[in-house]
Amino acid sequence: MLRGLEARDRAPLERLLVDTRAFRPDEIPVALELIDLGLTPGGGGYRFVVAELERVVAGYACFGATPCTLGTFDVYWIAVDKTLHGRGIGKAVLGAVEEAVRADGGRMILIETGGKPSYAAQRGFYASTGYVEVARVPDFYEEGDDRVIYRKLLRPAGGDPR
Ligand SMILES: CC(C)(COP(=O)(O)OP(=O)(O)OC[C@H]1O[C@@H](n2cnc3c(N)ncnc32)[C@H](O)[C@@H]1OP(=O)(O)O)[C@@H](O)C(=O)NCCC(=O)NCCS
Predict the structure, then answer these.
(1) Of 20, 128, 141, which is best to mutate to test ligand 1, by the most ligand atoms within 8 angstroms of its C-beta?
(2) Quick one: which atom of ligand 1 is closest to the CA of 59?
(3) Residue 70 in contact with residue 162, Cβ under 8 Å?
(4) Nearest to 61 by CA among 38, 80, 77, 39
(5) pTM
(6) What are the pLDDT digits (tens) for 26-38?
(7) How many other CB atoms are there within 10 angstroms of residue 144's CB atom?
(8) Which ligand 1 atom sits closest to the C-alpha of 20?
């Protein structure tokens, strides 16, 4: 089941993020800060899709309209419970994000990830969900770890101006 963010999700999401071992300890508070903003009325523009499996939080994504753009959205965070990887949950969560962005008239979605070898799985995930690498900043996160920017166009470039 896919739904919005609720206050009871904070603790399980923190555990889920830590358990993936995909994030450095200093990245977890950043993810939690966005979750806290998402739980605040207005949400600071941060929106969430949460996946629940048998009433247990199984994954989530945080996304929002990119400030100072017309129709561009960013996915800021996506993670699935480590024990449930490869079962289509990430794809379903991302699909729900895309649906919400489309409903808001969004043109494109950007997702950033790391270029280091240990992030090959993440890059494989984005490639198989239709995202295309459009830019790379060498050594952005640290030496040997590029910032890789993936994009999905939700409607063809040069479509109706809004
Ligand atoms: C990246 C992540 C969200 C993917 O979620 P998931 O539920 O495991 O992925 P899914 O099962 O939905 O896979 C969707 C597609 O991606 C592909 N994929 C998933 N993992 C892959 C891998 N390691 N290598 C290549 N492709 C992969 C699947 O084959 C599937 O493609 P298909 O539909 O053609 O079969 C999850 O692995 C995760 O939480 N990782 C740790 C946190 C993280 O790194 N987040 C991203 C930070 S940038």
Answers:
(1) 128
(2) 39
(3) yes
(4) 77
(5) 0.94
(6) 999 999 999 999 9
(7) 11
(8) 41
